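Sample entry (225 residues):
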Amino acid sequence: MEFPEAILFDLDGVLLDTETFLAKAWSDTAKKYNYQLSKDQLTELKGRQKINCAQKVLEWINKEISIEELLSIQKSKLGNQLREAKPFKGSIELIKFCLKIKLPIALVTSSSSESYKIKSSLNPWLNSIPIKVLGDNKYISSGKPSPDPYLEAIKKLAVNPKRTWVIEDSYSGSVAGLRAGCYLWFFSEDNGILNKLISEFSQNKIQRINELAEIIYFLKLLKGF
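Predicted structure, serialized as tokens:
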């Protein structure tokens, strides 16, 4: 393992604890059409763009409704809950540390500009991240699990993907980062997803962390300070 040229951060489930709100909103949306989303289905939605989530849910519930209608319901179910999203322990410290040592960083999220605005309104520290690749970026044709979002960030930072770290919590986001050629720090306790990623990619491209502070530890260790 080498000291990275850059670190690319996912937002939901990595820097901000929002996944519970998002999962409940989709679950409540499906219930409106008498459909119960399973745990595996909710896991499949994690890390994806909102439009892709809506397409998946529409496929599962199998009702004659439009994507627009489904998205409108999901938005109403979500309400203002995103304003309550709190940063994960160590997220602010990690961002500050990267900036302090002048390590290039970027935010790579499936969240739209509107969603990011809401989340960052009460978490202004997010705005200190200089490069942001949001879900509605006009230069991205496909969202996660496509590598396009991460490749866009790599292009903006002009770094080598093989020496770039990605921090992700979802299967789709992790696949996106690995397909882009990056090293994955898997920030999740889900052994099922971790084992699936290892079987599909390579053990030496993936490492799990339980706390974001571990990233600071490894950066200090590799840099020798």
